[in-house]
Model the fold of this input.
Amino acid sequence: MTPSTHRASVTLPDETTAKRAVDALSEAFFEDEAAFAAFERPDGRWDVTVHFAAAPDQALLRELVGQAVGPDAAAAMAFDTIEAKDWVKASLEDLIPVPAGRFVVHGQHDRQRIPPNKLGIEIEAALAFGTGHHGTTRGCLLLLDHVLKSRQPRRVLDLGTGTGVLAIAAAKARHGRVLASDIDAPSVRVAEENAQLNVSGHLVDVIRATGFAAPQFATQGPFDLVLANILANPLRQLAGPMALHLAPAGRVILSGLLTHQAPSVIAAYRARGLVPLRHLRIDGWSSLLLRAVK
Done:
């Protein structure tokens, strides 16, 4: 049972303003006093939220935000209390099976409901990102299914694997090995556990790495297929290293970007010799399939 928490939130016009607000607030509280989150909305604005175990001083918070980004933002701050709840139980109740081409992502409670002609991928709510219910994960799975209808990529990489859902899907569909990486140690552990749960532990090699900075990328590449469900900015920054680690005519599936961010990501990869083949839009998010022209 998660105890009740107190929440302060405000919507700001852009990423720069949101970062100034978070910086100002985080300097005023110790790590164990508050938890901060900032997310971009589909309309380009940013939601900043702060969670407190104890009721915060609302006047102080408004003053800090006002000094950082202006009085209008301070006046627009909202405060509420999130009541105690068994969030794990609630999450599992909401996680209905998600079909995506030949794949169905499901929780343990739906294990017996998967059609025999589908590939079930069992993923529980966890610390890592990717239960299959987000538009980006579903978009990647649909594009993976599309690729596998005409190609059997031999060397596959899941960059920023999260729960490991994409790596597991690629391994089960191909009956072949997949290299999966994540910058986050808990995600690496979760992905390894999920691979074992899905009887794919012998096929999915999970490593902790930032970008392409690990020797396994050189020894196990170049890759015929790379899946990267991350965020727009890291995807743009990885365009160069991605191209260097691709096999001739290799495919890349990218997601984690809002639809309005897709053109800039496509441009970054075009500049590195990759051309777009498909563009899926699901719930305001984009998933891209690109091909190396060399």
Observations:
- The chain has two domains: 5-82, 123-292.
- Residues 5-82 form a domain with the Alpha-Beta Plaits fold (CATH 3.30.70.260).
- The first helix runs from residue 15 to 26.
